[in-house]
Amino acid sequence: MYASLLLILVPLIIGYLLPVRWLQAVNRALSAMVYVILFLMGISLAFLPNLASNLLRIGMITAVSALCILAMNALVLAVLEKLLPWPAAALAPPPSRWRMVLDSLKLCAVVVAGFALGLTHWSGFSLATQASELLLILLLWLVGIQLRNSGMTLRQIILNLRGLLVALVVALSALAGGALAAMLLGLPLTTGLALASAYGWYSLSGILMTDAFGPVIGSAAFFNDLLRELLAIMLIPLLIRRRRHTALRLCGATSMDFTLPVLQRSGGMEIVPAAIVQGFLLSLLAPVLIALFSVHASG
């Protein structure tokens, strides 16, 4: 019952406890592995029975879950904007959003390429799921190393109250949105909560959710979280002047890495500590919550 929980937590903890100096090599390996695992996920998707109907279901789950989660986030953050205003400092010109959008679309292309190749139904591709599970263990170990070397100390996290508050609001409101999506889609509550628990970390959610709930839910989780990142890249420069909390929450777990340059260039250095704290905390929460909801669902 707890095998999936141990599969996630053990390599993550081991990686976090290992201080290393070759962080650049870890980052490169992590980036490459994400592409490989997403490619394998596309192959697994091609082996689904009743493929056409399942693709429609993936699209439906993605659309409803994304709408519910983002709407619930926006509703609660609108209250926070009123209660705790966050005035903007002098802002720099925004970075190139189109290049970052193209980087995100590359990930979709990898999944599509794996899917297209999987349609050949070559017998060797039947091992794609097992291969992705083995790579998942290595991926989580590298993620643990990355978190350990992010430079965030416990003191920095505790003292940045705004980052803590936004992370807490995003985490809880996303879970509420996931519960609403589960009700509308007729899914088990634990599935809806797990869908909402990646907080935009698409590479992790697609892998973990496929392993726990199958390729339909796993693919929906991937596209749900990727959509969140694409929206963040496009909307941050528009929201950052008057709705800084809302701009930050769009990034979710990626505010510590992929969308951090957009936040920094659009919102100034003042927003960076809160962005790193939010991303760090949500990155820690994501695999733990997905594992817990997966265990509960399988139990």
Short summary:
The chain has helices at about 5-15, 25-45, 50-85, 95-120, 130-150, 155-160, 160-185, 190-195, 200-215, 215-240, 245-250, 260-265, 270-299.
Describe this structure in words.
By secondary structure, the protein is an all-alpha fold. Helix content is 78%, strand content 0%. It has helices at 3-17, 23-46, 51-83, 97-118, 128-148, 154-159, 161-185, 189-196, 202-213, 215-239, 244-251, 260-267, 272-298. The protein is globular and about 60 Å long. The N and C termini lie close together (6 Å). The model has no long low-confidence stretch (mean pLDDT 79).
The largest sheet, given as strand count, sense and whether it forms a barrel, is: none
Tally of contiguous helical segments: 13
Number-wise, the strands total 0
- Portion in strands: under 5%
Global outline: globular
Topology:
Layout: H1 3-17, H2 23-46, H3 51-83, H4 97-118, H5 128-148, H6 154-159, H7 161-185, H8 189-196, H9 202-213, H10 215-239, H11 244-251, H12 260-267, H13 272-298
Helix pairs in contact: 1-5, 1-13, 2-4, 2-5, 2-9, 2-10, 3-7, 3-10, 3-11, 4-10, 7-8, 7-13, 8-13, 9-10, 9-13, 10-11
Features:
78% helix; single chain; 299 residues; 13 helices; mainly alpha; globular
